[in-house]
Amino acid sequence: MYHIVVTLPMLLAMVEGADRLPAYMLLYHIVFLSRCVPALPMFLSIVEGPDRHPADEGSQEVLRGKLCLLEADSAEVNAFFTELSARLVSINSEENVIFVAFKTFEEIWKFTTYYTMGFLGQCMENLLLDQDFWLSSMDQRNVGIEISIQEETLNLMYKGILMQEGNSLTLYLCLKCCSTGSCIATVEYDAGGPDELSLEQGDHILIVGLLVSCFEWFTGRLERTGEVGLVMTTLVKPADDTLYGSQGNMDAHQQAELKRKIEEILQEGKEKVPCATVMTNGTLEDHSESSKTTLPSGPHFTVHPVEEGTTTNQDKLLPLLSFLGGSDYKPDFGTLYRQTPELLLATFNGHSDNIDELVTYLGIARETARKKRLHWTQSRLCLLLGKLSAGSSKFSQARVYFEEALSIPRDGFTDMLMLANIYVNLAVIYLVQKNTDKYFALSERIAALIMGIPDCVSTVEKDSEVLKFILKKAILAHNKMAEARACFLLAKLHWRRGERADAVPFLERLLVLSAEPPGVRSVRPSHGYLSLGRLYSQLSLPHLCVSSAKRATMHPSARLADCLNGMGLVLENTNRLYGIRKQEVAIPAQVALYLSRSLSFTGELDGVGGNGDHTLSQALTLCLSQLFQKQGILGRAVHSMHTLINNHCGPPSSSGATSSPERISALVWLAWLHICNSQPEVSLDVLDSVLASMPEHCTTPQEGLISLLFVLCFYLANWAVAQANLGLLCLKAGAKGLAERHLTEAVELFSELHGEEHEVNFITVLLELGQHCVNQRLLERGKIYFEWALLIAIKSNHLDSQLSATRRLCHLYGAVCSDEAQCIIYNEHQLALLATRGDRGQEGEVLETISQLYLSLGTERARRLALDYTKRSLGIFIDLGRKEKEAYAWLQAGKIYQMLGQTELVDLYVQVAQDVGLSTGDTTFILQLLEAAGDVFFNSNQEREKAVCFYRDRALPIAVRTSSTEARLRLSNKLVELLLKLKLYGEAVEYAQAALDISVTLGNRLNERVAFHRLATLYHLLGQFELAEHYYLKTLSLCPTPLEFDEETLYYVRVYQTLGDIIFYDLKDPYDAAGYYHLGLAAAMDLGNKKSQLKLCTRLAMIYHNFLVDRELSLFFYQKARAFASDLNVRRINLSPDQNFSSMSQYKSNRVSTQEPTTK
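Structure tokens predicted for SH3 domain and tetratricopeptide repeats 1:
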């Protein structure tokens, strides 16, 4: 995938001189170098200013960020570079480089063309830059992305492609000359036919069109006679007024004069085809589809039966002979020349649609014209007969007719279009008959006519080989002016045919040549870029289309129509341009550039003392202002409207071009912009002026709109409140999306208001919108709204609002997105606010919350801080006489002392808490407090046995007396767990049985499973193995099926392993033990737990080896155990039963480690 351009100096350096390389070495170097360059780097940079200097580092960093984002979107990038005929290799965002490659010569040719035309940078701008860039950069000229490519690398890739595709290199040396003006004959010359000019030495010849030295002929006008014909290029020398295309440029005055004359010529009647008028400039649409509809339909003739040699023929043939007579060109002739044989049959009536019958009739007419010496009539009849014969594939007969038309004696050819038709048709026959010598000789003459008289290009509509011959010869001769002329004619030809895609490469090359010095102008550049943009749009190439439109609009030759048409192309391609990125862009911001450029032309239309096109100017300004307003650039929107008002929307007496309703609409829009820009007072002034200029009893819709704007100016705050209320109502109704929109609009309106009276409402709306965002899990947005509300409340020193915002933030960081540090900060701020407010009760509760937050941090320093806050809250609760809060504060202080290891104070604080709780006389509260006191010891690592006293002796009797079933279940479970850890298994059985009974009564299956499991564990530890097996099986029977979580499966594995161990080691039943081990192994295999599978396979291998004496199964489980041991790096597996039996004591000491299901 490589490409290259081989330049002449490069080749000469390789094959000439003392250090020249042999041919095979030259080939080796080209191939080797090309394969070393697999990709072409494109260097991107943000530039600015007329000199296109690199922008600051911040802008370059933005570009790097855009490229980094682009790396992740391969579909968009691939589609983009496919449009540019390149293949993406990689993107290096750090270096601002994109690497591309090419597979065919066509790809690299197109890519190089786009680079030369400046499209690459503009396409990258459309791809990478945001919408706001186009608006913000309007004041900065020449800001954009510049693409630079290493020419040497590109040349190497060109060479590689050429070598792979086998293209040969041909050098054609010729004078690089192309001239206009006049020349002088150097020798005497007798014309070889009526199409040539006879010359005498020293004759002055005016060059018609272009004299291109690489062609043998050119079209000239003899100055002394006025005759027009072909002149051999080698027979003349330049006169003093001859201008060579390679000798430099015209000065500004000459260019302007030439442009004026060309425009005058182009404005002449397009239906008329002049015989010898030179048209050096034009457009692709000239004489295209529109011209086909305006051409005359042509005459119609009736074919009468005639006989050769009779005298009655003359009367019957007279209308035809008269029509075809005359030396000058007529428009009807052009229609006749362009007709195909089928259309010629329709032109002549009275025959049976038989070409032979029409040929016979025209043959008799030709013979009659020859006898009467009607030379022009005979020539045209020969042309028609030749076309009919060629249409019947009688090429030899057609050749005779065409050659006769050229050989008929006459003074000269003034109907140059007929001459071109004869040449082209004869050239086609030479090509069919493979008479290449005559074909190329005739092609030289056709080239002279086409280069001189562009209208002759219509004669080659059916066969463009002649134009391609001209183009090839111009390229080989390095004659850029001739090449541009040929490209223009080929593009125009394909355009007329409707082959728009085929016209693209020729139009691209024409525009490239027109930009190179000296300027080659066959078409106005702005028009050429616009036409190219239309072709790109039809070919679904949106980036190239928009780039062409921009070049057309910004070119110095652009006109108002070009700017408007370019804007139309951008709007047509918006969906395709931004659909790749799935952006919703109704009106792209690029349109601002076209609107601004169009407005500059409407300013030029004003003239001196004139009104100009005020309607168009107002429409463009309104569009530009609305675009600014939509993007949030209100200052620019207001400025553009002020400019319009100052220039065109003055009093009615001073501007008659803009009607009163239009002026009022512009002023109303200006008033609305001032409202949006938080300038209601300016809007009121504008609206007052509008009302003053309107009639007294005006009842138009505009008056109603003005009244509404007055209301908005006076009651902007009420509008914000209405939006907020509407949003809150939508929240109540469940319309969350609509509520968010109204609340957001209310926030925008409140943020524009200036005054302390609106701040409370503003804070309320912010808090509600923040809470809505939190409920929708938009946590960052919710946090921003809460913090915004807090800042406004602090600024306005509104205490209640500060408290509301702070509480929302405390809840956010405490319950929604946990962040202890932030939660502590906002709670301490809330504490300070409550202290200022003097609310002691809430202050104590906040102190409790802060203490809990510090405890959750888990450090000793945090615990000491928590103790300080607890003691502060304790003091407040004592002062307030809130006994329940006071009791819990004493208990919390004792708990913290327990964490700090100061056990000597724990009993004191717990006892005080118990005394305060008992003083309340509330049984339910006392029960909760006693259980919490037991939890202080239960959850600690020291003196855990003290919890038994609180649970069993104090709390449980109260729970039984008050029939608090949930409390009994909770206390029983805690007692079972505590007594298990204290190894008081016998005492624990009573409470485990009680927990089971309560769970069965409540119907709580999870607690029932926990109770069964604990009973099984206790009986196992007490040596009652049958009961232990029974309760383990009861536990398994209560497990849900199917299993949902891996933890449940692991529980199965461990219980079945425990049952197997009980049956094997304790009840000495290897057969039943093997069954439990098999069940455990199945669960372990389902879970994929290799460690459990190793243990179970080892036990099964040992049982089958030593007790059940099944060697095959023993070997099977032993091999599986070895495989798991290898995976787990276990070195040795011993199947000796003595060792396993001797491990009973160790096993029994570890039975308690069997995991239990989660306790509720």
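The radius of gyration is 50 Å.
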